[in-house]
Structure formats: C-alpha cells, structure tokens
Here is the input.
Amino acid sequence: MRPDINWLQNLPDTRLMAEMSLWSADLMHMADEMQRIERFTDIYHVDVADGAFSPALLFFPDLVAAIRKKTAKPIHVHLMVADAILESQIDQFAEAGVDLISVHAENSNADAALAKIAAHKLLSGLVLQVHTPVSAAIPFLGRISFLTLLGTAIGVKGQGLDPAANGRLSEARALIANQNAHRIVLAADGGIREHTVPGLCNAGAQTIVMGSLAMNAPDLTARMAWVHAQRLAA
Here is the structure.
C-alpha cells in the first residue's frame, strides 16, 4: 500500500494537519491502534533513534515495513541518529517503503543524507532542535518538502513547550514564504498540548506531531474535530 504519487500536493492546505506519532501508540497492539486512528491521520510519523544522537532507542525498519502493509497514508520517518549510521539508515528505511525521510540539520553529513534520500526518489525533510538557529535551514530549503521544528529537547516525552517555539515557527514561516519554488510543509513536534496547539498553528505550523493528545484522548473523534477546525495562518 502506498499513497498517491502526488500526496504532498494533495495534503490539506487550509486546516491544521495531524501527523500521528506511532511512538505514542500502544506498541503491543500497533495494528489495532492504526485502525483506530487511520481516518484521522494525514501522515504517520515514525521516530527513529539510536540511543546516541537521541537518548531514546526506537523504531526499526522491519517494523516500518509491516506498518507500510497496513496503510496507504504517507509515512514520515524522522531520523535521530549519529552521522556514522545516517546514510545506511536512509537506505534501510527507503527499502521499508516510507514516503518521506527527515534528517537533522545538526548532522554534519546532512547534505549527503539529503542527496541519498533524493537518489531513492523520496521526499526529504529537515529537523531543527530547539537550540539550533532557524537560519540553519536556509541552505537546504530548495531541497526539502518538510521543515520540522522541535519544541522540546530531543527524544524525551512529556516535556513542556519551549518558550521560544512559537517565535521560531514564525521565523521559519517567513523563510519558507521567501522561497516559492515548491511546497514546504512547516511542522511542530514536541510539547503538543491542547493549550499549545492554537498558538503553534497561529505561528505558522501546518501540521503537528500528535502523540498523547490524540492517543490518550477520552473522545478521539471530538479531539480530532477540534484539531481539524484549527485554520492555518493566512
């Protein structure tokens, strides 16, 4: 199962999108969880961490290959891995059937990594940690389809949103607006809570990486109706 080849262009462009983080799913019942959230999902978000670049340790290509068989929605892999294994991880997740791979601006070989993603004919993205200046994305804007700004420290669940997150999104939104060659989706990842979502959206986020806000919602249908009712900043 795969999304349409033009899936990026077909993404909603007037409402906030839900990028569902499978890290927050019930990992013992992944297929059931995907069935529960499928109709609310614009993009599946898969975090990959090596325990070195990021303190977490998750997910692996065989699991993603199994996820691929269960959905035709786009799968976005966020690689939080050390330089030494970054390019080999791209190869493995490309083979697993993902649609978009994002790497970190903090990787010294980010340029080579983006070239490798392009060689696999996949869309690419760039991720910035909270301490990395938004301007670090400028050299890569012509080559990416997603720009993700972390609003919390990398690889740790349950943190509050960094106070600079909204301002950083506004800055990134302006950078993207200054290049109009192709669509770049601006994503917010980390610190996604009911009280932070409207501000993130108003600051320029077009999609939010949803973990517990969706997975632990007492009424998932109502929660997602609320998220989808958030209109993108003009």
